[in-house]
Amino acid sequence: MKITRALISVSDKMGIAEFARALEKQGVDIISTGGTAELLRKKGVPVREISSFTGYPEVLEGRVKTLHPRVHGGLLYKRANPKHEKEAREQGFEPIDLVVVNLYPFEQTIAKPDVTLAEAIENIDIGGPSMIRSAAKNYESVTVVVDPADYNLVLETMRDNDGKTTLKLRERLAIKAFVKTSSYDRAISTFLNQEQTTDASFSLTMPLVAHLRYGENPHQKAALYGDFDRHFEKLHGKDLSFNNILDISAATSLICDFEEPTVAILKHTNPCGVGSDSDLRQAWEKAFATDKQAPFGGIIICNREIDESLAKVISEIFSEVIIAPEFSGEARTILQKKKNLRLIRLLASCLELLPKKDVRSVCGGLLVQDPDTGAKDKERVVSKRQPTQSELEAMRFGWRVVKHVKSNAIVYSASDRTLAIGAGQMSRVDSSRVAIWKAQEAGLSLKGSAIASDAFFPFADGLIAAADAGATCAVQPGGSMRDEEVIAAADEREMAMIFTGVRHFRH
Hints:
This protein is of the alpha/beta class and 507 residues long. 39% of the residues lie in helices and 19% in strands.
């Protein structure tokens, strides 16, 4: 049926005046609410207030305006159904053929760091989802639009079909509408569940971004969901693989712990080396020197623009992915000569990039936790000797890196670079030994270095191995039954040691 009447009520008013004007030119009667009606009138678009359509005023500060039988009757009655048509005439229901609604900005509201529960609740939309669901349920006759990106498509379809939309389009828009209300309700329930600390169920729905060639291994099917493409832009190279995306996420989480100019190299989500310097090329040299073998086929990430000088040196090794907030034109010319190398531009701040929840699948369910980002260290010197300023800086550098290394994790560092990394061993002393061996392979001295451990030393052997290798200070969470033995071992070797009170264990 031809669209003769539209109900428009939007929170996001981008493009709505132009859309409404185009509808009016096609002879569509426009009904609207509150702020939307006011905007349309200012733009010269003829509009009827919802209260004149329902015969009932907006009440309770606008909380009740579209919850009325004339609205939902006009949306839900089945066209060409004799019984429905008869009842609609008797009740005075005028058909509403098009609903344009986007919802109160609940998710934007709760994203504010100082949001109150009362403010969040006030931004829970009631009438909007109700209209969307009524329209979407009756999509055989009614068109529902919840996304400004679909305005032009609806107008083009109407122009091509004598003021009508196609069943295929209405069906697609209805599905999109139900996805929208579902995700909206989920955002509300998730927020309230966190605020009220209830035991409600956990659910998650995300749009499909892409089907991937395969998963972690070629025999595994895989897909990417969410809004990954809103945060990362591929400038060059092959499509991203499942493992590429895991590495990109790990690299981004690491680089977000550094404000100073920094380069990090990762392999299989583990850091191979990290370096900081005002000259990014020097930062690269520091990171690469930590381990010159593992970076082959790895991931490189910078938190500053990659220029020609840096591009020249990093192009000398084979990398899967290079990530930066920007690439200079000269850098892109150099790096794009490698047709398989993926260049990824970071499009968002760390606050937007870091995940809000860490979700992992397990047999029979999901594990859900907060990401390891919010804990504040409570540094406490537990050794007899106080650390020097340079030791303190070295320990803090290693501590920022070790939280991104798979446990058991050990990092030897200076104040501006990693010197050796031991990851994923079944005992902490073995991780320390692996790191020492890697330093020897790289020709790096650990004399005067700091050692960082992601979890406490359960025995003194790991600390003793570090001291024997040349470390003069250590940083760890503390909390072991044998803390006193470990502290005593540090004191015997005149090592400075800090407990942070925070563990960064990563399975």
